[in-house]
Design goal:
With 229 residues, this protein is α/β, with parallel strands linked by helices. It contains nine helices and five strands, in the order βαβααβββαααααα. β1, α1 and β2 form a beta-alpha-beta unit.
């Protein structure tokens, strides 16, 4: 067993929602490997945009290996860099840059995850096969709206959550089979209930909408964790 952490240290406000979404998906895939102990999103994202020494970050997180990288997006082009660093000595174990068309983001995600896992397992003489997790997405417009919605939701204001709900609706309109967006819609209509915000959604209507959205999410993906939460 060994610990690893994923750290994003290159802050780009315009693409923050997209980068955070990709980082989340990488963490999810890596966490499905028995030989890896992956630090939580909350702990690793605390270093986002900072320029502390990577060895110091690793010691703070109490991990052996740090995966750091950046995501840069320009039009339909995407550049992702990733590198593995040994916390004990600061040496690079592996590094790679990926330039891809944005329409291929799902294939790129799988490619990057597989390369990172292979490098980790080779270095530590382990053997495992990464398990895919979550609902697969094939519509880029839906995925982009969903990531923007998640980013807006985190601001926790009535205005931002209404914007998030609108974005989640856009996601389900673009891809009616995108289960996580339906679950996100359910959460938002509950958070925007009238007993939480002035001029919020009436309580009974909120519950009715939430149940309807959750039913749709679970029809698409009966194992969707977000829906059960």
């Amino acid at each position: 067993m060994f610990a690893a952490s994923l750290v994003e240290r290159y802050y780009d406000p315009e693409n923050e929602y997209f980068r955070d979404g990709l980082s989340d998906m990488l963490i999810d895939r890596l966490a499905n490997i028995d030989e890896l102990v992956v630090i939580s999103r909350t702990s690793s994202f605390a270093f986002k945009g900072q320029h502390q020494d990577i060895m110091e970050i690793g010691r703070t997180l109490n991990v052996d290996t740090v995966l750091e990288g950046s995501v840069r997006k320009a039009g339909n082009r995407l550049r992702i860099t990733a590198q593995l660093i040994d916390v004990d000595n600061g040496f690079h174990l592996w590094s790679e840059t990926y330039d891809r068309e944005l329409t291929d983001i799902f294939a790129v995600q799988d490619e990057i995850t597989a390369a990172i896992v292979d490098a980790l397992l080779l270095h530590f003489d382990a053997d495992a096969t990464p398990q895919s997790g979550g609902t697969e997405v094939t519509n880029m417009s839906a995925y982009d709206a969903y990531l923007q919605g998640r980013h807006k939701q985190q601001e926790l204001s009535a205005k931002s959550m209404r914007e998030a709900l609108s974005l989640f609706r856009q996601a389900t309109e673009a891809d009616p089979d995108f289960a996580p967006a339906w679950a996100a819609r359910a959460l938002l209509v509950v958070l925007l209930r009238e007993d939480h915000f002035v001029e919020g959604i009436p309580r009974e209507e909120s519950h009715m909408l939430a149940r309807s959205n959750l039913k749709r999410a679970l029809e698409i993906d009966p194992n969707l964790a977000e829906a059960y939460v």
